[in-house]
Design brief:
- With 483 residues, the protein is of the alpha/beta class.
- It is built from 14 helices and 21 strands.
- It has a seven-stranded mixed β-sheet, with helices on both faces.
- Helix 2 runs antiparallel to helix 4, helix 3 (80-91) packs across helix 4 (95-115) and helix 9 packs across helix 10.
C-alpha cells in the first residue's frame, strides 16, 4: 500500500476526507502516491489560524524573517537534483528542466530573503507647518495562493517567497496534477522557525477548495496563475469581499522573424520558445510571424528541427520533449490539431500521439503552415507542443499581427536591425518583450506580467511584488509643543 501524503493545516500534517492518485505521465504504471484532499472545515481552520500567525510573523525582526527565507532557498538549491527528479516524474518536463526549475525556486527564496532587509519607507514634509509625513508598506494580511501544474515549484515559489518576505501568512492550494512537488516544498517550509499556522498546504479541487478559498472573507489577497475562465471566476468571487487579486492567465505569444534575421539563430529561438516544456508554458511562442523573403527557408529548417527533437520519458537524459501532463491535456491538443486542419491550415509535421516503450502521454511537436491570424489556432491558447506560422510582407504587418490578440504576455523579434528592434520593444503591446531570444524565459529579479486578458492586478516578481503583497500607510506626525 502506498502511504497517503497529507495536507499541512495550521502547523500539523492531517488526513483529508478523500485522496487522489498521482501517476507519472511518462509511465502510467508508475504510481507516485496518494494525496489527501482537504475538507472545507480544514480550510476554514487554516484561515482562522493564519490570521493569528500573521500578526506574530509580522512582528518578527527582519533578520529573523530573512534567515527563514534564506534557509528555504538554500535547501531547495542543494536538493535540486532530488526534487527536480520528483518534479519531472510527476509533471513530465525533461529532467534538466525539472532540476533547473527547483534551483530557480530556491533563487526566488534567497532573493526575497535579501528583500526582507530592503523594506524602506519614505519621509516627507507636510504642506502644513510643523508636520512630518512617514510613508511605509505593511503586510496585506492572509494571502491565498493558487498555483498551476506547469511550473509546480517555481510559480509557487515566486508567490510564496514575497508573501512571507513582506510579513504575510499563506494558504497554498496547488494544482491537483502535481501534488508531490507541493508536499516536498511544504516539508521544507514546515521545518522553519515560523509561527504555527503561518503557512498551510490545502490540496483539493478548484471547484471546492479553490472556490471556498477565494470566497472567504478571511482572505485578504489572492494570487492566481491559470486559465482566463478560472481567473474571471476568481475575480467575480473575490470582489464580493473586495479581496485584492493578482491574476496571471492566458497568452498567445508571437515571435516575429524578419528578413534580416540570422536563420540559424531564428530557428533555434523559435524551437526553444515553441516546444520547450512541451509547449506547456504561458510564455510559449505559439505564433511564428515570418517575413515572406525568408519564409520558405525558415520553414524548411524549423520543420527539420522539430522532427529531430527527441520525445521520450522525462527522466531519460536524451529526452528533449517529455509527455504532456495528462490524458485530458493530450485530448485537447489533438482536438486543436483537428481544428487547425478544419480551418484550412496545413500540418507540416507532428501533431500526433506517439508510442514509446512506456505508456504515457507522448506527442510529436507540430508545425502549422498557411495560417491566418483569424484562425482559432492563432486566437486561443493551446498550451501544447504546437506552433503556427503566419507569412507577412513587411515589418509593419508583422508588428500589427503581433498586437492583434486579446492577450499580451510576451512577444519577441529576431532581427539584426537595432532601430527596428527598438521600435518593436516600444510598440509591441505585451508585458514582456524579447529581442533575438525566445519568448519563454524570464528572470526573477524584475517584474513579470502581461496586458489584456493575460494579466490583471500588480506585477509579479522582483521589487514590483511589494505592490501586491503590501498595503501603503501614510502617517502624519505633529511636532510637540515647545516647553
Amino acid at each position: 500500500m502506498t502511504e497517503t501524503k497529507l495536507n499541512y493545516i495550521a502547523g500539523h500534517w492531517v488526513a483529508g476526507d478523500t485522496d487522489i492518485e498521482n501517476r507519472n505521465p511518462s509511465d502510467l504504471s508508475d504510481l507516485i502516491g496518494h494525496f489527501a484532499q482537504a475538507s472545507a472545515a480544514q480550510l476554514d481552520e487554516a484561515i482562522a489560524r493564519a490570521q493569528e500567525a500573521q500578526r506574530i510573523w509580522a512582528g518578527y525582526g527582519l533578520e529573523r524573517r530573512q534567515s527563514v527565507l534564506q534557509a528555504i532557498g538554500t535547501e531547495l538549491m542543494a536538493r535540486a537534483e532530488e526534487l527536480g527528479r520528483l518534479l519531472s516524474r510527476e509533471e513530465g518536463k525533461p529532467l534538466a528542466e525539472g532540476k533547473g526549475e527547483v534551483f530557480r525556486a530556491g533563487q526566488f527564496f534567497t532573493y526575497y530573503a535579501a528583500e526582507c532587509l530592503r523594506q524602506l519607507g519614505e519621509t516627507a514634509d507636510s504642506v502644513r507647518d510643523g508636520i512630518e509625513i512617514d510613508v511605509r508598506r505593511e503586510p496585506v494580511g492572509v494571502v491565498g495562493i493558487i498555483s498551476p501544474w506547469n511550473f509546480p515549484t517555481a510559480t509557487a515559489a515566486w508567490k510564496i517567497a514575497p508573501a512571507l518576505c513582506y510579513g504575510n501568512a499563506v494558504l497554498w492550494k496547488p494544482a491537483n496534477l502535481t501534488p508531490a512537488s507541493a508536499v516536498a516544498l511544504t516539508e521544507i517550509i514546515a521545518r522553519q522557525d515560523i509561527p504555527e499556522g503561518l503557512f498551510s498546504l490545502v490540496m483539493g479541487s478548484g471547484r471546492t477548495i479553490g472556490q471556498r478559498l477565494v470566497e472567504s472573507p478571511g482572505i485578504n489577497a489572492v494570487s492566481f496563475t491559470g486559465s482566463v475562465p478560472v481567473g474571471r471566476g476568481i475575480a467575480a468571487a473575490a470582489v464580493q469581499n473586495f479581496t485584492k487579486i493578482q491574476l496571471e492567465m492566458g497568452s498567445k505569444n508571437a515571435l516575429a522573424v524578419m528578413e534580416d534575421a540570422d536563420l540559424d539563430l531564428a530557428v533555434t529561438v523559435a524551437l526553444g520558445g515553441a516546444f520547450g516544456g512541451t509547449g506547456q508554458k504561458c510564455t510559449a511562442s505559439s505564433r511564428l510571424i515570418v517575413h515572406h523573403a525568408i519564409h520558405d527557408a525558415f520553414v524548411e529548417r524549423l520543420v527539420a528541427g522539430a522532427q529531430a527533437l527527441q520525445v521520450g520519458h522525462a527522466l531519460d537524459p536524451a529526452t528533449q520533449i517529455g509527455p504532456v501532463v495528462s490524458q485530458t491535456q493530450l485530448d485537447e491538443n489533438l482536438d486543436y490539431v483537428a481544428l487547425g486542419r478544419s480551418e484550412g491550415a496545413e500540418l507540416a509535421c507532428g501533431g500526433t500521439r506517439l508510442d514509446r516503450p512506456t505508456e504515457g502521454y507522448f506527442m510529436a511537436p507540430g508545425v502549422f503552415l498557411n495560417t491566418t491570424n483569424a484562425m482559432r489556432i492563432n486566437r486561443e491558447e493551446m498550451f501544447a507542443p504546437l506552433t503556427a506560422i503566419l507569412k507577412v510582407g513587411s515589418y509593419d504587418e508583422a508588428l500589427a499581427t503581433v498586437n492583434d490578440t486579446v492577450f499580451g504576455l510576451t512577444s519577441g523579434i529576431v532581427t539584426r536591425d537595432l532601430a527596428r528592434a527598438t521600435h518593436f520593444r516600444r510598440n509591441a503591446r505585451t508585458g514582456v518583450v524579447t529581442v533575438n531570444l525566445p519568448t519563454a524565459g524570464t528572470d526573477y529579479h524584475v517584474p513579470f506580467g502581461g496586458r489584456g486578458q493575460s494579466s490583471y492586478g500588480p506585477r509579479e516578481q522582483g521589487k514590483a511584488a511589494d505592490e501586491f503583497y503590501t498595503t501603503v500607510k501614510t502617517a502624519y506626525i505633529a511636532a510637540g509643543v515647545p516647553a
